[in-house]
User: Fold these one by one.
Assistant:
Number 1:
Amino acid sequence: MRTEWRSLILHALGVTVFTLVAPASAQVHPLAPEKAFRFSARALDPHTVEARFIIADGYYLYRDKLHFAVEPAASGLVTPSLPKGKMKEDQFFGRMETYRGNLIVNLTLPGTTPGQKVVVQAESQGCADLGICYPPNTQRVTVPLPAAGSAPTPQDDAPRKQWFK
Amino acid sequence: MGTAALLALAGGVALAVWDQSPRDAAALLSLSLPDTSGRQQSLAQWRGKVVVVNFWATWCVPCREEMPEFVKIQRELGPKGLQFVGIAVDQVEKVEQFASELNLNYPALIGGYAAIELSKTLGNEVSALPFTIVISRKGTVARTQLGAFDATKLRSTIDSLL
């Protein structure tokens, strides 16, 4: 019984403190960009890497601000073909193409050696429906390439690992 | 004894939080950034006015959408000592183009990512835009707003400081 009262008081204290420090205006609380636009990459074979963005609900990326690079340069990344997004009419910039939900882009690397590691870099810029935009954001992932003839590496655990960040 | 300690803690915390002194906008007001003509403009030149610093970019739709209202408020309250200052995280040409389309009546300065980093220290944790800071004549932060600034709330904040 006593333990329950204590936790209740602590809980009430927490709520009180939070209310006192919370800003006076109705503020928006957007996700950090790495959480709004979760980037991961895995090898499908020694010359193909699947790059993936898991875009949170209520967030979107601009197609024309999406750029990929792979290190080392000898990997020879072929300019990837991007999937079709949704068209949006913008007063200033005209027709804009955006992505929501899961975005998958296959990266072709003719110059890689089976078994080597590559670093995939994704630059993206997006906004949230709640009314904010992020500056361009760069995310990098190291991808081990399989030896010749082996199966694609399994889907990365990345989202789960980031819970504790 | 446990309960008494907890109540004392609650009282102490409440007192500490209530006693928050207003944040100093000194770092922001000592910024010097180029305008679209390339001329360096020091924000310190507007000390003593009610300064509304708005971080924006042409690639940020919600930013563009709220600016016509800023132009209106500047026109009405400028003579009473209000000064909007826009800091664009953007290319000069795009800023110039949009500023002329809008008949912008307040300075549009060009800030790089260092400027956005500065906004982090004022509460913009995810470095997003638009981010607006209202500074009192004494140089303290009266209010910050992440996302579009509701016109009524903005006007009442400014009115209370003029």
Note: Chain A has a mean pLDDT of 85.
Number 2:
Amino acid sequence: MRVGIPHFGNVYIPVKAMAQRLGASDKDLIIPPLMSQKTLDLGVKYSPAEACLPYKLTLGSLIEACELGADTLAQARGTGICRLGYYAKNQEQVLHDLGYNAHFVTLDVSQHKFKSILQLIKTMCNDAPWPKIISAFRFGIGKLFALDKIEKVVQKVRAEELGKGEANQIYREAIKAIDEATERKEVERVTSECIDKLSRIPREEKAKPVKVSIVGEIYVVIDPFANMDLEVELGKLGVEVERTMTLSRWVKYSLFLNPLGIDEWREVHKVAMPYLKRDVGGDGWESVGEKVLYAREGYDGIIHVAPFTCMPEIVAQTIMPSIKEDIPVLTVLCDEQMAKPGMITRLEAFVDLLRFRRKRRKG
Amino acid sequence: MIKVGIPRALSYYCYYPMWRTFFEGLGAETVVSSATNKDIFTSGNLRAVAETCLPVKVFFGHVISLVDKCDYMFIPAIRSMGRKAYNCSKFLGLPDMTRALIPQCPPILDPEIDLNKGQRNLYKTIYGLGSHFTCHKSKIKKAIEQAWKTNSAYRKEMTDFGITPIQAIDKMSGQNCEPGSTLNLSPVLKIALIGHPYVIYDDYINHRLISRLQAMGAEVFTPEMADEGALDVAMVKLAGNPHWTFEADIIGAGEFYLEAKVDGVINVAVFGCGPDSMMIDVVRHRARELEVPFLHLSLDEHSSPGGLITRLEAFLDMVKRRKRVCV
Amino acid sequence: MIQQGLEEIKKQAPSEAEICGVATTGSARYLAGVVLSADLIKNEITAHAVAAMHYIPEVQTVIEIGGQDSKIIVIRDGVVIDFGMNTVCAAGTGSFLDHQAERLNINIEEFGQRAVESKMPVRIAGRCTVFAESDMIHKQQMGYGTDDIIYGLCQALVRNYLNNIALGKEILPRVVFQGGVAFNQGIIRSLSETLNMQITVPPHHELMGAIGAALLIHEEMDAGLGETRFKGFEVSQTNFRASSFICKACPNQCEVAQLSVDSKVLARWGGRCDLWERVGK
């Protein structure tokens, strides 16, 4: 069994770590190359024209994994409304047509998440004994939590650093170092060193930077290739970014807190109620509620990212303007045709607008 | 008498007779918008977010046209008709999107229908709906039962006589049912038309697709003309358990008519429909396997009838020539 | 314009020639059909396929890129089994190139020649002319050579064509490339490189639609359809009147076009419903 996974943010790092702990080699776990134009072109070529971007990107990534010999592919699925439930079905057919004899193991991300995660891990770990799995899992998850912790600091430092790009450089080095670490202590050491380095970067002696929150569909919110390095570009414009959705948060709640009855979105749904009474699938309800919450917390603006034609996010996009809690929202729709210069122009204009509003509120 | 507005769009084509019976049973009157026209489309298009699919934009236009004509607007949030198969997000968000885009809309009745939650939950929801009109639970219960009966009769009309929802609705209201076919010669080709009812039967969206096909010599078969149970079986055969409520209309109907050996299959879809983008390839693949010509029409508000006619002609030419060669 | 064309044909045809059949094709085929009393009105997809098969019997893929629209036709064992037409916009069509050539101040004929000279084509984003234009300006400012940019544009058009019109269609040899744009060497090169196949451009590639329609009416007349309905070249002198009016029958307020001779209405088009098509027949 040669397991292949598609790319989604930094998820490859904890998975790789787990595999290594269990004694797997490069042949047992195949991580496709980091996503590139080639991945996108491959995905676009073999997808229906109007399929959503996460479908096309994960397909491209999985094709690349199959090219390297993977035969057991991991993919998410959901019962319920958004198209995620169809990914594995269609992608399996495409891969068969291309001549790859791959079969899918899927992770249910909408219900019975705890059970589903355990099942997936057990399968991918080739039925290794549980104590070994748990130890490997802890190691892998430790890396994921460390990476997200560092990223939170980077999101702040980027906005204020004097020499633009330093924080990104340190972040890239940290990702590499954490990926290569073989012990938990090493991961912890790298993390604290990195955060220390970040804190010592010379900062601008000016007023607080503009603060925006990024909401929307989880894949394009989290994955930098899918959103064309949105957060880096915002950092260049001196904007501090905050994001509720991270991989570590998802794991934390799905595995540990949801089974205890703690729903991480309860408050968000509650504040969304006057505007959207019910779950519309995907992350639509959450996007609406997050606008309300971030407005109340005094953020300057919201960037709403979604794949082009994403159904739940179109519902959110329709409802957002009528929300009384007033905060500017920029909608960025991601698809294979989006060109970076175009996105940057709109970000620049949006940030100018936010700065102008701030000045007006003060004066 | 209380007037309940029902927009002639989206779920109207599936359930209108049932809704009308229900509300009339409670002593209310239903007011339906007129057939889609340019004004209706334009008013909806002006308000909706650009990426919204055409049928939903049209829906908003229908609501706007009814705003002054009713006391309540009926926009149910249909989550699931069972089997853990769910409806597209837009259906669930419809009541709230309407509220956001059309603030002048009268109070919206938006019961959430989810058959997976069991009959008790369903009845509870409908009693809640009925309570706007009467406090007698027995009256509501009777109205529900009559409504279910009407729904079965409606479906039976379409499968027994091979007529469209519009014809069935006219027939059930006592109006004369136009034969609908302007055919001089007997049809040469059997063509299955698969897709959502609100695309197949809205002449504004599809530029009179059915009558054009009939005028070109095709006998048109739609999902509503087939038995629901048979569509279900076909759907599961081709794609396993359904993910969406309307998979039977596309995957089920596709497989059913392909097995029934139609001469060609046309899928009429709308640009930007999320679910369709995933389901179509399944049917296209199957049609290729069985070597049956398959045409995918992707319509939007900019589609011109000229381009549509060219495609239809070319498709029917292709089907005719193949038939000659293969026979 | 149809009448002018008719005059031209009359001049070029030998005087003893007898017209046995008339066919029309293209987006204005119905109008032309009425003016000429045509025996056959055929859509351009079928017409293009028939013409391609006539010149190259082993054809399995017809790629047609015209000024405003593009098609792909899949043929197996001499039968059309699938086709595609541009649906969303004109991105994979000739107008894309015309527009960019104009911007670069280059003759469209020279365009193709220069594209072939390119050694290192530049990637240009290309869903639509607007995006391609801004990307092209960007690349020009960065100092890329004009030849390379031109070839990049050709590649963008081919990419668009293959990703939109040809998406999901199985492309097998022989590949026949026809339509107005088939003179462009740059496009031919790009198609050939992207598909890794030989591309054949038939003689009279820009007239294949008309040739196909002619072949079809020829076939039908040979099979004994009867006398042609064509009234003769005098039609080029007839006083046709084209006019339009707004129909007030319903809120759609469609603009209906009509063609008449003297005061007799020959045909009407343009309404959303078939009210005017039925009246006056």
Note: Residues 137-161 of chain B form the longest helix (25 residues).
Number 3:
Amino acid sequence: MSDQYAVIGKSHIKVDGHAKVTGSAKYTFDMVLPNMLYGKILRSPHPHAKILKIDTSLAEKMIGVKAIVTGKDTLGHKNGPWRRFPELCDEEILCREKVRYIGDPVAAVAAVDEDTAEAAIDLIDVEYELLQAVFDPLEAMKEGAPKLHEHAERNINVTRRIEWGDVNEAFEKCDYILEDQFHTSSQAHLCMETHGAIADFGYDGKLTVWTSTQSNYYIQVLLAGMLGMREGDVRVIKPPSGGGFGSKFELDSAQFCSALLSQKLRRPVKIILTREEEFTATKRKTPMYYYVKVGAQKNGTLLAKEVRVVTEGGAYTAMGSTALYLTGFYSCMPYKWAHYRYDGYRVYTNTAPTSALRGFGAPQAYFAGESMIDMLAAEMKMDSIEIRRKNAVTPHYEVPGQAYIQSCGLNECYDAIEKYMKGRWKLPPNRGIGIGNYAFMSGGIFNWFNTPYAFSAAMVKINIDGKVDLFTGACDTGQGSDTTLAMICAEELGVHLEDIRVHAEDTDLGPADLGSWGSRETLMNGNAVKMAAADAKRQLLEFAYAKMKPNVVYDLDIKDHKIYMVDRPERYVSYFDIVSDVIRAKEGQTIIGRGHYTPHRKGMVSPAWSFGVQAVEVEVDPETGKVKLIEIVTAHDCGQVINPIGVLGQVEGATMLAAGGAFCEDQPMDNGKILNPSIGDYKVLRSVDMPKTVGIEVDTYEPEGPFGAKEAGEGLTSSTAGAMANAVYNAVSVRIRDLPITPGKVLKALKEKKEKGKKEK
Amino acid sequence: MRKELRLTVNGQPYELYVKPKTLLVEVLRNNLGLTGTKRSCESSSCGVCTVILNGMAVKSCSILALQADGAEITTVEGLANDGKLHPLQRAFLDYGAYQCGFCTAGMLTSAKALLDENTKPTEEQIREAIDGNICRCTGYNSIIRAMTAVMNGEYKEEK
């Protein structure tokens, strides 16, 4: 299929590759500015306390300390990405009266070096009045529980309901009904580059911030709001970034505190969070309590589903409210439930705030959902693929009142996985294969941030030598959006990838754009880039048409630097000649194309959906409960593949992150204190743990996407935990309902199964 | 009290004076400006600071600079030669064995140390060689494929 394209569909080395393999890429972490100071942040050691007094006098006297800021130095604004709902903007970042979790910032110091700043924060004396704290959301929602925020009765932060059909009535008509409960754990993003920023507030009243972020625009707007500045006076630049995974599109303490200190001092201030701060005081994955009830008819039709979810919110709203909505929507996918009801509650707790982590509520939904489907299939004596295939969404299906699906390759994904499973027909004892499937959004339609701009925008500038500057607000944090967008631009314009230079790092240069989260880049940024390139191309073609004077029945296009008649490709003029002529004709102006994209009439969730089916093979050691990953095979539909090597990287990377979350990653707490805030103690999958991974791409064309492309990379984290739980069940007949699937939990379940067996005998 | 330190980094001899508690990674990044070598975990467990010291892959955050006195060190900046990329660097590019790039310097130096010592490692040995290096993006398998390709001679040294 990809032969029709010159650039896309073929693997290309990423545009930032050479800088990254030679060590010449300069991250925020590496940057040093002249006259720069270093900052450190003092954080609350208490989960819930009133701030009575902050005495900074000793620290101020220290040689080398230049400034100290506390909540009193702020405007007292509260921050949050849900700007349409002021009560959900609840994070001061520098607390004024009260701290709500261990790690809440209370003061920040700027000093000549990091050691001095570190020593100075130890000299700041904060007098607290300890308050009763609450850590579990189920406890926090009880009457009389300690209250985190005045406005939130019973600590309920956000509620969501999604409903269609008549669930209660439909359950009456079901032949099989199952209900169960699940719990999902926390996970750290563990970006290899921790959060960090350099803020430089000039005497001209303008602020420049270099920071490792997923959205320049969000940080610009949120910082301006917190500092009482005009957005245009805040410039945010993103150097190469050492990972995001959902942790870097909200305003963070490094960005805010460095900006505040720099505003006071008019000198650049750099703050890089320590690894411990990264674990304890940045956002994390949202743990969720899930109640699920499903009902099916004898003929195998999944008829009704009811879901109730309580999420551990932590101390602030963050993007956790979006996760609450999305987990509720994903819980219906990817099946045609005629009747569905979701009730979600996000509850404040005195723990580090929870938010987005690659998957954004989907991995939790599919862990519970896909476990239930397998349990139901077993009850109904149906094959686990058959029950899924029979009920799966199909092209042109409308999720009632919610979403409209255009392309959908789920059926082909089932075929591919079925074929793979047949090849593995006989497994040794204690081995099992489990499957799971998913649907995932290609960017969200919702605008809780309340941007007045288009969701994505791009600009293309063609220079006299034919080189193309592409301006976009997508932020490449390693996922490869710079390359994907450059390829889309090159394809549309008919030039080579080498002709494109991507400028995706600077709010002063690029158009406003929501940035890189929720799998927006390929479809939303891609559409804006394609439109901008088409706009620039039109200007070339108009001129070429006048020059070539073809019969009007012919049209022109550009490929490989040739502007040619589509039906008579032997007649062409040089791209370079036309570029030079057009600039001359425009009185020396460069050629500029503009593009934008905002989804319209595409439902409430996303304009396009990607799909996948995953098979996970495990081996369980019944003596120790240890689960070994043998192989993970993923068949997925991301529409037209833009950069195959990039997509493969997404498949494998997403699988690892999801398998880690399902398998070993967790953040156990004791009275709100995270017990494993170091990489030594926080277990992740390493090279020796990583099983063989196979990615199978299913070919579809998404009409809404650029060249038919849609999301690839975030959705792939969705199905792994459910598939792994199913695999463990198929291996040793125990059902794990609480993530992660640790040896202890497996062993306990095996023991319970054995005892139950004895009793029944 | 600063002490004299002599070392050779990427073929270039240096003579400097450092405090006894200065880490090797601090000297490389702060004194020599070789910021290709990263820091991330503060607990010697992530491997982004890996460099080659007298032929061995070591975590440069876990040794004092003075312990490296007299040593020959190769960092990621020393892999390419006269503008020509090292075979491992070319393989990493082709196999997409990096994403955010923050772990890449450590991966490349761990990989080079292995292949310099053992020209025909097994897959298990390849995986073990980068066991101390965390990558949060790729899922490791593309790195394993890139290393295997170099081992198999698919990438020759460019003269």
Note: Chain B has a mean pLDDT of 97.
